């Protein structure tokens, strides 16, 4: 039980550090090997923001194929793990995002 908690905590910490990394230096791809690996294994999907509610952490995305969920392209509502992840995003933005098995957004960033 305790081991499981530690595991969840470390996954959470990893997703935060990845977000910080992605939000920071977009130009330089010479990041640390560990950070590059976590981005690669994240299965980023393209989407377009159709509706956004930062208060509830819900965002409607018209998304491309989500390979890790074997989901075809569609428009649907996702919940962000943290409502703060949606700050700075607006309706009409093109984004790259990653979702976990429960369809919660673990990572989302504006596509430049
Ligand atoms: Cu979907």
TrEMBL record:
The keyword Kinase does not apply. Gene3D superfamilies: Copper binding periplasmic protein CusF. The keyword Signal applies. Keywords: Signal. It comes from Limnobacter profundi. This is Copper-binding protein. Pfam families: CusF_Ec (PF11604). Residues 1-22 form the signal peptide.
């Amino acid at each position: 039980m305790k081991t499981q908690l530690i595991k969840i905590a470390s996954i959470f910490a990893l997703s935060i550090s990845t977000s910080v990394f992605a939000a920071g230096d977009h130009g330089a791809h010479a990041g640390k090997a560990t950070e590059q690996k976590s981005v690669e294994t994240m299965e980023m999907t393209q989407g377009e923001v159709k509706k956004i509610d930062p208060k509830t952490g819900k965002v409607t995305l018209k998304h491309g194929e989500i390979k890790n969920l074997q989901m075809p392209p569609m428009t649907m509502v996702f919940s962000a793990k943290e409502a703060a992840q949606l700050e700075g995003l607006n309706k009409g933005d093109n984004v790259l995002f990653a979702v976990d098995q429960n369809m919660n957004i673990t990572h989302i960033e504006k596509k430049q």
